[in-house]
Specification:
The protein contains 17 helices and 17 strands. By secondary structure, the protein is α+β, with helices and mostly antiparallel strands. The strands form five sheets. The chain has a five-stranded mixed β-sheet with strand order 2-1-5-3-4, sandwiched between helices. A five-stranded antiparallel β-sheet has the order 8-9-14-10-11. It has a three-stranded antiparallel β-sheet with strand order 15-16-17.
């Protein structure tokens, strides 16, 4: 058991928790907060949403030990004055509440949005609630309720600067030496950062000999520029990458891609390091990392080594990382003067993996391709860059014939890598149209 201290709805609290105890269970069982409900248990429905430092998170995929020193809000916080919050009143007025199961999480997502953006447009509102599924009302009434609050600036609040209690000195402060020692002694242990994949696997019955949380480890946070390169800590979240000004200006495709991962809650929790180590063929961050010549920095007791992203992923869901190593950071080349982008084809806009994805960075002058970088995901066992096609396009004039020849080469390369899969009947025509659109600009 561990003792954790945090702020719950404005009050300093502490309790003992099990090593693998989830926040949803701590809130419901130890603090009797029943508004936090479990729906899916795998981070898709949003019924368990809470705010951690005013950002939405899924409590069903958050270890309680992770909230040490943080500010936690549940829907009870909104009506602590004894009156309904303006957001709650607006939901009632607009008929945005039916069974009420999803409502607490939905209210918290809206509250978090309005703290950051008191005048959101419809698209922004829809994106903010995209991680909260409603089975009763549909979403139009919910959007209308938020718009009603936005009409009256006095009803919205500004983000507070409240910080949680300081972490106890050394209480959960992990060091690299401690992690390396644990990895050596407990070979069945697994690294956890965001937990959005590994805790889902654990709930589905996959056994681990213990979890080693590295999310607070020194050196795994932050994004910094180093000459023409950008260093991204492995524990940086997708939300942080999405809005980071360095990434937006010099690696725009990565910013866009991380903004398509899961839902707002998943993006607030999931890390780029986890996305890489998980090594899914559909991982959103990998195609942009490839076009930016990403390099993984791996560290162990024996030192560090650099492995290009292309070599790091050796097959679906398998990497070249050793059991004694951790991924510390990713180094990418920053690009200037390129038009960059990322397109993802999925079954729905949020909470869906890519059926097909393309990242690109293209530099041209006077309708001549000076440099073309393309990476394709979720189409072959591993995302890849068709470098021979990039070489073919370099110096070529933008022309329909050139586009077709380049795209034909890419399609042929995909079939050679994977054979003719059943899914290619719809994937390859879609990919062909996307690639021509991208090259045309």
């Amino acid at each position: 058991m561990k003792t954790i201290t945090f702020i719950l709805n404005g009050t300093d609290v502490n309790c003992e928790v099990e090593e693998t105890e989830l926040l949803i269970d701590t809130l419901r069982e130890r603090f009797k907060v029943k508004s936090v409900k479990e729906g899916c248990g795998i981070g898709e429905c949003g019924a368990c949403t809470v705010l951690i430092d005013n950002e939405p998170h899924y409590s069903c995929l958050t270890l309680s030990s992770k909230i040490e020193g943080h500010d936690i809000k549940t829907v009870e916080f909104l009506s602590q004055s004894g009156r309904l919050h303006p957001i709650q009143e607006a939901f009632i007025k607009a008929g945005a509440v039916q069974c009420g199961y999803c409502t607490p999480g939905m209210l918290l997502s809206v509250y978090s949005l309005l703290l950051k953006n008191p005048e959101p447009d419809t698209l922004t509102i829809r994106e903010a609630i995209s991680g909260n599924l409603c089975r009763c009302t549909g979403y139009q009434q919910i959007v209308e309720a938020v718009k009603e609050v936005v009409k009256d600036p006095d009803k919205t609040e500004k983000a507070d600067e409240t910080k949680g209690p300081e972490k106890g000195e050394g209480l959960y402060k992990v060091t690299k030496d401690h992690i390396f020692k644990t990895l050596t002694e407990k070979k069945e242990s697994r690294i956890i950062a965001g937990g959005t994949d590994i805790l889902v696997k654990a709930r589905k019955g996959e056994f681990f000999g213990g979890l080693i949380d590295i999310s607070d480890l020194d050196g795994l946070k932050g994004i910094r520029q180093q000459n023409r390169h950008i260093i991204i800590g492995a524990a940086v979240t997708h939300s942080e990458i999405k809005i980071n000004p360095i990434i937006k200006s010099r690696a725009a495709s990565l910013s866009i891609a991380c903004g398509t991962v899961g839902s707002p809650q998943i993006r607030n929790m999931g890390t780029i390091g986890g996305n890489l180590v998980n090594a899914s063929p559909a991982a959103d961050s990998i195609p942009p990392l490839l076009i930016h010549d990403g390099v993984c920095i791996l560290v162990s007791r024996d030192g560090s080594r650099r492995v290009p992203v292309e070599d790091f992923i050796v097959s679906p869901y398998k990497t070249s990382i050793n059991n004694s190593e951790i991924l510390e950071s990713i180094e990418i080349e920053g690009l200037e003067g390129y038009r960059e982008g990322y397109r993802k084809v999925a079954r729905r806009a949020a909470l869906a993996i890519a059926r097909l994805s393309v990242a690109w960075a293209i530099k041209e002058k006077d309708k001549i391709f000076e440099d073309v970088r393309i990476s394709i995901g979720s189409c072959t066992p591993m995302p890849f860059r068709p470098r021979e096609v990039e070489g073919f396009l370099k110096g070529k004039e933008k022309d329909k014939g050139v586009f077709k020849e380049a795209v034909d080469m890419i399609i042929q390369g995909i079939v050679e890598k994977s054979g003719m899969r059943q899914s290619y009947v719809y994937k390859l025509p879609v990919l062909e149209g996307l690639l021509i659109e991208i090259l045309r600009g």
